[in-house]
Each structure stands twice: as structure tokens, then as C-alpha cells.
Design goal:
Order of helices and strands: HHH
Largest sheet: none
Distance between the termini: 24 Å
Number of helices: 3
Length: 70
Amino acid sequence: LVFGPRPARIVADIAVDLVLSPETVLTHVKNILKKLGVHSRRDAIRQADRLRLGLDPLTGEVPDGGVAPD
């Protein structure tokens, strides 16, 4: 949600919906990026997809010669 094409507007909307300041929302986004080990929102989306698919987060490959789920 916060990783979309217009993140500034989305951050403001989330802040209003959750009764938080935009700075607090951005702090949470930064923490998510840090936990995923990435530096951009675009990379975070890719990393989240890899993790969701069970792929190696560093290489994007199927670990140990296994088969990625459909």
C-alpha cells in the first residue's frame, strides 16, 4: 500500500486513517525497508514477493534445488 506509485499521498492517507503523523508512517516504512534489507520501496516489493514465493531473498532463486510453488 505505501509502496505504490504515489507514496507521499498514500502516506498522508494512511496517517489520517490511523491517526498518526506522516513522520510516524514514514518511520514505519523505513523500518520495513531495513528489516527486508533493501533501500527502496521498489526493492521492498521485489523482496516481499521473493519471500512470499519461498525464494532465496538474496538471489531470487529456488533454495537447495527445490521447486518454487505455483
